[in-house]
Design goal:
The structure is a single chain. By secondary structure, the chain is of the alpha+beta class. The protein has 11 helices and 9 strands. The strands form 2 sheets. Strands 1, 2, 3, 4, 5, 6 and 7 form a 7-stranded mixed beta sheet that branches. It has a two-stranded antiparallel sheet with strand order 8-9. The protein binds flavin-adenine dinucleotide.
Length: 396
């Protein structure tokens, strides 16, 4: 039997092994039974359902693709495509759950994989994978978002074997419950961007939860102030020597967001399809009207083309091909389709499309955060434009 019989028209799931599908099936059951009933209430309250974290980790979801050359015990080696479907399955249920997962399994893991030396990786990576070292990616600043490469103004000053960090970070997902913050700062000596693992509890670190969000309300974001924070040289990520190394991380992580945006579409489309099958007007199901069927076809077309695109991108990345423009194009294009899909889903559900009861409203609201994070539409378009023309339109 197919896992994605409704939203995966061209059978991308056939690329998965039977074992991989079995884990995804267990994830599906857990999400349906334990997570779904909590979503609307936690979204409304702006709280993450903390009780889901440990059971999700226990489902062996955290094992990242690159580290699993050989199966370890009963574990299934995590191939890129399987990793993508794990993100897809989570996002199909809820965008905050998927973001929570990729914050550790994507952002933080990538910071360590790309940024840490071999010895540092040996020490930290097992803890990243089993979630015993929870970390977050602290790049964006209050005054610099899209412009972070040139505008990054948090400073790092070296005194012997200690670094002193000063500055502020904004929007950092999951920081309030993390053990460490991967903080990017500019070395005052050589002007280059370096990275540090900062204990969240360290003296001089202040975290403020960002309130009044209208998207991804379940996932917490923090405003972080760093005031004379002392970090040992051993906690510096030794392979980060300039912003180029940060760009390499972003390049690898953007495909995760494209998978999230694809999963959101699948979730919204399936919820809308259920609704139009059940709801009747003019004595007939909504789904029997031509204008409604046209919207269903467009939603399915978007999901199908997004899924085809992320599958192909992931196959390329599995071969070691990581070009800026490839993941930028995917993030941009899939997010455009996501915005249309959630809007169409919201339309066919009518008034109930603005309550949390049908799931559609949550996907519709959350999509806006995904549209903006990890490179806005414009910035990803400019990365593609630079590759096409050889002209950079956004340098300072
Ligand atoms: P701005 O850079 O101020 O941009 C505003 C608008 O101007 C956008 O439409 C943008 O595209 C446009 N614009 C900017 N420059 C140009 C240009 N040259 N040409 C054309 N248009 C332009 N950051 C982290 O480091 N870690 C995280 O964990 C994290 N999580 C996040 C979670 C959420 C929910 C959100 C909303 C953000 C998160 N971010 C995180 C930050 C995110 O990456 C930034 O919001 C994003 O990079 C955009 O920056 P900005 O919001 O400052 O917008």
């Amino acid at each position: 039997t197919r896992l994605y019989d409704v939203c995966d028209y061209y059978d991308a799931e056939s690329l998965l092994t039977r074992d991989e599908r079995a884990v995804l099936g267990r994830l599906r059951s857990f999400l349906d039974e334990k997570a779904r009933p909590l979503l609307a209430d936690h979204w409304e309250r702006g709280e993450f359902p903390a009780e889901l974290a440990q059971p999700l980790i226990a489902l062996d979801l955290m094992e990242p693709a690159e580290l699993t050359g050989a199966p370890d015990g009963d574990r299934i080696p995590a191939r890129g495509i399987y990793q993508g479907f794990r993100i897809f399955e989570l996002a199909r249920t809820d965008a905050s759950l998927a973001t929570w997962y990729t914050s550790q399994a994507g952002l933080f893991r990538t910071a360590i994989r790309v940024g840490a030396s071999a010895e540092q990786q040996q020490e930290w990576m097992p803890k990243v994978i089993d979630f015993s070292l929870k970390g977050v990616f602290s790049l964006t600043e209050p005054e610099s978002g899209s412009d972070i490469a040139g505008g990054l103004s948090t400073t790092a000053r070296r005194e012997g074997d200690t670094w002193i960090l000063d500055g502020a970070k904004r929007w950092i997902g999951g920081a309030v419950s993390a053990d460490v913050l991967a903080v990017f700062a500019r070395d005052v000596a050589d002007g280059q961007v370096k990275a540090f693992l900062v204990d969240r509890q360290a003296e001089g670190v202040t975290l403020e939860k960002i309130l009044h969000k209208t998207a991804l309300r379940m996932m917490q974001n923090a405003h972080i102030t760093l005031n004379g924070v002392r970090v040992q040289e051993s906690m510096r990520l030794h392979n980060v020597n300039s912003f180029r190394d940060v760009a390499a991380m972003l390049r690898a992580m953007r495909s995760d967001v494209a998978w999230i945006a694809t999963g959101i579409q699948a979730g919204a489309f399936e919820a809308a399809l259920r609704y139009v099958t059940e709801r009747r007007q003019f004595g007939r199901p909504l789904g029997s009207f031509q204008l409604v069927q046209e919207k269903l076809a467009r939603m399915l077309g978007n999901v199908t083309s997004s899924l085809s695109l992320v599958v192909r991108l992931t196959e390329q990345q599995a071969k070691g091909i990581y070009r800026d423009q490839d993941s930028a194009l995917a993030k941009m294009q899939v997010c455009l389709q996501m915005r249309e899909t959630v809007a169409l889903a919201r339309e066919v559900v009518g008034g109930n499309g603005i309550t949390l009861e049908t799931d559609v409203a949550r996907f519709h609201a959350d999509a806006e955060a995904v549209y903006s994070y990890e490179g806005t539409h414009e910035i990803n378009a400019l990365i593609v434009g630079r590759a096409l023309t050889g002209e950079s339109a956004f340098t300072r």
